[in-house]
């Protein structure tokens, strides 16, 4: 039996030891936060010339972009052909002066959740702060009102319920990294855990 080009293309898009799902599994630790958009804001701080904040209404006024990508969860599932709507990281930060010594980013989320990323990964043209998935507003389980989408890394790096972006000189572990997950999380290298 010969493999068709669609099957070959799909195989080339799925990292080792991942299985494709058509669903959208919900995985998190603890409760889903209750968010009040009247009091919600997104804060940029740390190694920047001037801290910046956006209310939800101000965030909605930023240039909105639609992107298509595949996502890969550390637990072994991959979901292909996702459509996200939100603000590209580069568009959000175009007027933010990041200090030259900044090398890392910590994403801060509701309930004290955090995840770390190298600055160059966070600033990739594919990185987005999303409010919609496949044409629908995110559900609270999937990070409503705002989640990061960093599709080239395992999906825990795409933090749900994002409230802050901290620029740092030195790398620090976020919540999952402190609890045994890999600091970087490349699905193609199967960087699932700290010992990988």
Describe the structure.
It is a single chain. The chain is of the alpha+beta class and 196 residues long. It has one domain (15-22, 34-189): Oxidoreductase, molybdopterin-binding domain (Sulfite Oxidase, Chain A, domain 2), CATH 3.90.420.10. Mean pLDDT is 92; it is low at 1-5. It has helices at 5-13, 56-60, 89-92, 119-122, 175-178, and strands at residues 19-20, 41-46, 52-55, 65-72, 77-88, 104-109, 114-118, 128-133, 136-137, 147-149, 162-168. A hairpin with a 4-residue loop joins strand 4 and strand 5 (77-88). The strands form 2 sheets. Strands 1, 4, 5, 8, 9 and 10 form a 6-stranded mixed sheet that branches. Helices cover 13% and strands 31% of the residues.
Write the layout of secondary structure elements.
Blueprint: H1 5-13, E1 19-20, E2 41-46, E3 52-55, H2 56-60, E4 65-72, E5 77-88, H3 89-92, E6 104-109, E7 114-118, H4 119-122, E8 128-133, E9 136-137, E10 147-149, E11 162-168, H5 175-178
Parallel strand pairs: 1-5, 2-11
Antiparallel strand pairs: 2-3, 4-5, 5-8, 6-7, 6-11, 8-9, 8-10
